[in-house]
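We store amino acids, tokens; thus:
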Amino acid sequence: MITAEFIGILKHVRDAYEIQCKELCKELSMPQTALDILLFVSNEKTLHTAHEIHEVIQIKPNLISANVEKLVQAGYLERRCVPGDRRSVNLICTEKAKEICERGKRIQINYLKELWTDISEDEFEVFISCLKRINNRALAIQKRR
């Protein structure tokens, strides 16, 4: 597989996910990036800072800041100081965000089920193992810069 094909596949996977989310985003007048942030905060049990969002789902810091502000103003997120680190702020989903997050999680589950339709459980486990190793290599390449 050539590099362009591999990058193209990753883009198709992301684009298909965004298509699945499009109706919810439109209904809420919410950009995909804001929904991604909201679902990340909702799904993750320990990672709730803007820095962690950037590290895990690779949204640019300026987009995180702008979208977090909109989500806070809309009443979907709250900011809470991290005990012992006054520079860090945890993001917490509000009660108002609960239904949106549940709907978003259902979209994510259905999307993954559809992607894995023709893949056995054994193939899936091998694939995830390979993806993790690819990710580790990609991170090592980035650190060499």
